Amino acid sequence: MPAAVAAHGDANVVEDLFGFLRVLSDGSIICSPDDPEFSPTTFPSDHPSVQWRDAVYDKANNLRVRMYKPSAGAEPVGRKLPVLVHFHGGGFCLGSCTWGNVHSFCLRLATEAGAVVLSAGYRLAPEHRLPAAFDDAEGFLKWLSDQSVNAAASDGWLAEAADFDRVFVTGDSAGGTMAHHLAVRAGSATPKRGEGDVDPITINGYVLLMPFFGGVDRSKSEAVEFPLEELPFVNLALLDQFWRLSLPVGASRDHPIANPFGPDSPGLGSVEFPPVLVVSGGTDILRDRNVDYAERLAALGKPVKAIEFGGQLHGFYTLDPWSETTGELIRLIARFIVDSCVFEPRTT
């Protein structure tokens, strides 16, 4: 999180996110050291079938990853576990891999999907505006690649369980947006001279959980008006505030960071996508943008699958990580993992 800065003089609060993060008129940022009320500590913090630990992947920026490893038995003897790289949500301004709801969801994801889950933190706005978070996410994948090939740098706890040939990137809300941009960066990259034929890690697919996209023109689900007493937690004013605080200064919601199909966004026709799973919620304000995104990728011939959870709010899986619906989502992700890759032992 941004470092807390003491207010001074006659500075006024110009942006306030739940009292958790405040921006003052003199540019100062005040951040509460406590987790917000919407991230309760009452969720389970441990699971008998999962080991977890923290590591630093970027010392310069003090960025951490929380790693989860299921107990033996999730895969046949001699076969390592697929890897799910996960990026939390929070509108690029809030969130942490250590928050109780994120932690509890990753615990369940690891045990029920039978995968090593790597929940990576990243720099947040407004102190670090986009694309800082995307750069951090790309840096994390580089760290993961180093773990797979450099015995001196590797974390044995991770390497003994992780199958680096079966890596998937998952993201919740803003994390889903990050997953999209990682896919575009990877699918647009030109191999450098001298690189080997085999990448240290193989990303087999991307899972976008209710990705946070935007645009100047409102979608139908964004334009729905609610009585004040029925206003959902994730509402249009909040989304606009997130974009205001996280986009490059002066940018509109049609900036390519926010709108992958905006007027100034590069075409995606030539981008090579591995399988993509897009999950939307029937009552989510972002529902129409998520559906439109999947439909446009499909129209470009990309391997995309869209699933809608009817009647579900934005981020239902972190609002209640141990609900039956969250379990259904995790089973869907587990099936996507199986369907998206064929096991071929790495040769050396």
Give a short synopsis of this structure.
With 348 residues, the chain is an alpha/beta fold. It has helices at residues 100-113, 132-149, 156-159, 174-188, 220-223, 236-246, 287-299, 316-319, 324-340; strands at 13-17, 21-24, 29-31, 50-58, 63-70, 81-87, 116-120, 162-172, 203-209, 276-281, 304-309.
Question: Could you characterize the architecture of this molecule?
Answer:
With 348 residues, this protein is of the alpha/beta class. The chain has helices at residues 100-113, 132-149, 156-159, 174-188, 220-223, 236-246, 287-299, 316-319, 324-340, and strands at residues 13-17, 21-24, 29-31, 50-58, 63-70, 81-87, 116-120, 162-172, 203-209, 276-281, 304-309. An 8-stranded mixed sheet has the order 4-5-7-6-8-9-10-11, sandwiched between helices. The longest helix has 18 residues, at 132-149. It is globular and about 60 Å long. The protein starts with 12 loop residues before the first strand and ends in an 8-residue tail after the last helix.
Descriptive terms for the model:
single chain; 348 residues; alpha/beta; eight-stranded mixed β-sheet; three-stranded antiparallel β-sheet; globular; disordered N terminus
Sequence-ordered SSE layout with sheet pairings:
Layout: E1 13-17, E2 21-24, E3 29-31, E4 50-58, E5 63-70, E6 81-87, H1 100-113, E7 116-120, H2 132-149, H3 156-159, E8 162-172, H4 174-188, E9 203-209, H5 220-223, H6 236-246, E10 276-281, H7 287-299, E11 304-309, H8 316-319, H9 324-340
Parallel strand pairs: 6-7, 6-8, 8-9, 9-10, 10-11
Antiparallel strand pairs: 1-2, 2-3, 4-5, 5-7
